[in-house]
Every structure is written in structure tokens, then in C-alpha cells.
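We emphasize that the prediction below concerns an isolated chain of 220 residues; any contacts that depend on oligomerization or on bound cofactors are therefore not represented. The input was used exactly as deposited, without trimming of termini.
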Amino acid sequence: MKILVVEDEPKLNENLVEELRDRGYAVDFGFDGEEGEKLARINGYDLIILDIMLPKRDGLMVCQNLRTNGIQTPIIFLTARDTTEDKIAGLNIGGDDYLVKPFSFEELFARMRTVLRRTSQLTGDVLELNDLRLDTRSQQVWIKKKKLDVTLREFGLLELLLRNRGAVITREDILSHVWDRFHDEFSNVVNVHIKNLRKKLPKEYAQRIETVWGKGYRLV
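Result of the prediction step, given as a C-alpha cell string:
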């Protein structure tokens, strides 16, 4: 899952990006409204975390411009102002939730899950395929009662495959959703991680990750 963070306070921006990446999300970031809007227009994100008080262009204007141009990516606003009027303005302009600073990361992640579930980007906390269970909250993978030791990238890959079971996922789509915009598009990083994931899965599950030559991968 890929997140965009737009926050002008350097330390908070850094902490948000670090926490999100530690949880297995692919993250892009910007420090002002113009940069954030540009990134949101040219890249596909599952969620945008957007500060309201931004230089060059405030978060409300960014949100309004995105909605006007048909970009419906869920948006959680961040702000230091805790008034009913501010909250109503953010929600009326097209925001999906509103988080007042300072906040705990656990509250942020809880709100992210709620927003993603409400906007149909997240269908549930647990994804299942026969005896395989992937828990998006604990970021753990189980087969029957055995926990699999997977990396965050492998977890992201498996989650993407499970959510799109039966569909061919291109290498570009995998890079877009599991890695951030700083990835090397000419490397074989996807192939390597798919190979490693197959090695860790029992044979009957590894065989279900099909290589569709010239296109990408598919979980059947």
C-alpha cells in the first residue's frame, strides 16, 4: 500500500515517513502544497496524509484541486487547530478524516484503517486463502498455526496478490504499491522478492503465484 505524506515541519515529516515505512507502507513525501499536489496528480496513492497549514498552497486548496480534477484518493488532514469550523471546512472540501496535532501514531494508524475500509481500499484486517492468513494489523502471516518469517516487502507483495487474486499485477503496479518513487525501475528487485516469497511459502501456496510472462504475476 502506498501513502503520500505532505507536511512542512521537517521532523514530523521525517517521523511520519519512518513510522509508515517501518509498518511496511511505501511512502512518498512533500514539504509544501504545490509539491504535494503535483505528486498526487502524477502518482497513484492509496491514501494521502495532508497538513492544512502548508507553504505555497494550503492543504484545503490542494484537496479541492484534486477533487475538482477527479482524484478521489482518501485524504486525512493534519492540523494544529481544533475547532468545529475547521473540521467542517476540511470535510466539506473533500477530506475523509481530520487529526489534530499532537497525535499518537497508533491513533493515526487506527484512523487510516477506518478511512481505507470506508473508502473500500481495505476490505478487512485479515485476508485468507485456505489455511493461509495475512493479518494487516499485526503484519503477520500464518499457515495453520505456524507463523511465517517474512520481510515487510514480502508482506506487502503477498497482501497485494491476495487483494487482487486472479488478476495479473504488472511489475510496474507492484513497484508503485510496494516501493516508493525512489525505486530503481530497471532493477530486478520485484523478481528477487517474488522468488524469496515463494521459497518461504509451502509448495502448494508457492505454486499459486504464477509468472505471466511479459506481463507480471498472478495469485490463483
